[in-house]
């Protein structure tokens, strides 16, 4: 073992020591392979503090590790000094739950779907919802300020957090787990660490804000002729149902064809496959009928020429089928093999313009299949570029940089973000430097230097070493 591994073994119980198996050294898209000097899984905040104190003394790099579902390389590094992988997998406890006030204090290793189940058992919901919720852990979700499908109604991850517990690079523990809704006592360290991707501290627990479970939920899939019509449908839905609109997803035809081509096997409501579908999801009070609201929305949208066909879920099982279609598209993407994937956002009103202009810029590079889908309601699109049939992503490897540059340049021109919900990690450090505000970058580097002067926390992620 390396010196740092030997020293860690001396301060931690045997149950906290892990083999550096491939599970800790891979990322979902298979482009990078990590390395590790040691892998540890502390069971308590005190053990996390001990690990960081030791690593800080050694100057040893540390990568906090959640569920390994991140898509921008924040959970691994290929070069430099092999890091200590600090997994939060054993810290999964619900420390407190107030069913009257709707708050829950949970450790960072808790899996998102388990948090959902516990909240629902008490009559509440925790509405952070995304495709990887069966394996994504709370710490990683907060470290990246995850978004998901319900942002239009409930906000991003940071909007659901009342307080956090975290450990700084030198082992200092910060505890702001109070479930207070109002607390203006100085700098809000909570929001500094949420979204910092493990570069400023290791989040070990959080006080979560729970929400009332809607008494009635419904969904519909509506065929729209264009992204412009989808925008019109979104505005109409917001005018008619207001805050009852939980999600508004845009799905392009290519994603539907990918499901036909490679699976997962998914029931699709329209044949032939339309160019564009909107998935509209509502959550309403006991006195309201989501089905009736969706019928009215469809009728008015049809009269306005915004939709041409639609299906309204007649049961929770059918609603789940609609969502399964949406959530299976990323799995189909992985089976096809993207040349370049983009998690971008633009102002909602400019989504149609982005979708219209991006193909022309990419056509100047080569011919591609484009799968555009995502969270139309908040302007976040997953815009993924695939090889034409008969080719593989390896055939376009030398064009990946040009593809990304073409997409991201257009996003920047439209006042958007090249990282909407996945974070910066290591894959987008160059993009942050190219498109980020220079003054903000100066402030970020100053904060990093103040909280992690030796630079041990996730070095190379977000900010260049």
Please describe what this structure looks like:
The protein has 4 domains: 3-87, Uridine Diphospho-n-acetylenolpyruvylglucosamine Reductase, domain 2; 94-212, Uridine Diphospho-n-acetylenolpyruvylglucosamine Reductase, domain 3, CATH 3.30.465; 216-334, Alpha-Beta Plaits (2-Layer Sandwich), CATH 3.30.70; 337-447, Alpha-Beta Plaits, CATH 3.30.70.2740. The chain has 14 helices and 18 strands. The strands form 4 sheets. It has a 7-stranded antiparallel sheet with strand order 15-12-14-13-17-18-16, with helices on both faces. Strands 5-6-10-8-9 form a 5-stranded antiparallel sheet. It has helices spanning 3-11, 45-58, 112-121, 138-143, 151-154, 189-193, 227-241, 253-262, 290-303, 316-336, 351-363, 400-413, 429-435, 438-451, and strands spanning 17-18, 38-40, 62-65, 84-87, 94-98, 103-107, 124-125, 161-167, 173-175, 202-209, 211-212, 216-224, 245-252, 276-284, 309-312, 340-345, 369-375, 380-386. 34% of the residues lie in helices and 20% in strands. α1 (3-11) packs antiparallel against α2.
Summarize this structure as a short list of keywords or feature phrases.
18 strands, Uridine Diphospho-n-acetylenolpyruvylglucosamine Reductase, domain 3, five-stranded antiparallel β-sheet, single chain, seven-stranded antiparallel β-sheet, 4 domains, Alpha-Beta Plaits, 14 helices, 465 residues, Uridine Diphospho-n-acetylenolpyruvylglucosamine Reductase, domain 2, alpha+beta
């Amino acid at each position: 073992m390396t010196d740092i591994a030997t020293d860690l073994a001396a301060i931690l119980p045997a149950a906290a020591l892990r083999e550096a198996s491939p599970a800790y050294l891979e990322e979902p898209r298979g482009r990078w392979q990590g390395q590790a000097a040691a892998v540890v899984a502390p069971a308590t905040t005190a053990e996390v503090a001990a690990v960081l104190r030791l690593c800080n003394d050694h100057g040893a790099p540390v990568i906090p590790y959640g569920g390994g579902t991140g898509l921008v390389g924040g959970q691994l590094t290929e070069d430099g000094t092999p890091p200590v992988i600090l997994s939060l997998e054993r810290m999964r406890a619900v420390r407190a739950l107030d069913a009257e006030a709707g708050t829950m204090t949970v450790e960072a290793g808790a899996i998102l779907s388990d948090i959902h189940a516990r909240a629902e058992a008490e009559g509440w919901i925790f509405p952070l919802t995304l495709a990887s919720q069966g394996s994504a852990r709370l710490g990683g979700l907060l470290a990246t300020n995850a978004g998901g499908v319900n942002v239009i109604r409930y906000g991003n991850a940071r909007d659901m957090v009342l307080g956090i517990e975290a450990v700084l690079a030198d082992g200092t523990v910060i505890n702001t787990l109070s479930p207070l809704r109002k607390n203006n006592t100085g700098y809000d360290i909570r929001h500094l660490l949420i979204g910092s991707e493990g570069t400023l501290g290791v989040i070990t627990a959080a006080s979560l804000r729970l929400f009332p479970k809607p008494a009635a939920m419904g969904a519909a899939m509506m065929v729209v002729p264009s992204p412009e019509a989808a925008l019109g449908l979104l505005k109409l839905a917001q005018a008619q149902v207001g805050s009852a609109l939980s999600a508004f997803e845009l799905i392009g035809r290519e994603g539907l064809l990918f499901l036909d081509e490679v699976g997962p096997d998914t029931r699709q409501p329209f044949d032939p496959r339309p160019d564009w579908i909107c998935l509209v999801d509502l959550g309403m009070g006991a006195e309201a009928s989501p089905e009736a609201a969706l019928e009215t929305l469809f009728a008015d949208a049809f009269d306005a020429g915004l939709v041409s066909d639609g299906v309204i879920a007649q049961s929770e099982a059918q609603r789940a089928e609609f969502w399964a279609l949406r959530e299976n598209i990323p799995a189909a993407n992985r089976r096809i093999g993207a040349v370049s994937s983009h998690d971008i956002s633009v102002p909602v009103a400019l989504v149609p313009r982005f979708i219209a202009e991006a193909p022309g810029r990419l056509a100047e590079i080569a011919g591609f299949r484009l799968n555009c889908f995502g969270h139309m309601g908040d302007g976040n699109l997953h815009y993924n570029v695939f090889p034409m049939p008969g080719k593989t992503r390896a055939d376009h490897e030398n064009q990946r940089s040009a593809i990304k540059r073409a997409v991201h340049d257009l996003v920047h021109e439209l006042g958007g973000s090249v990282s909407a919900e996945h974070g910066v990690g290591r894959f987008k450090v160059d993009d942050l430097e190219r498109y980020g505000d220079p003054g903000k970058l100066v402030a970020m580097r100053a904060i990093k230097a103040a909280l992690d002067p030796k630079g041990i926390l996730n070095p190379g992620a977000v900010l260049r070493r």
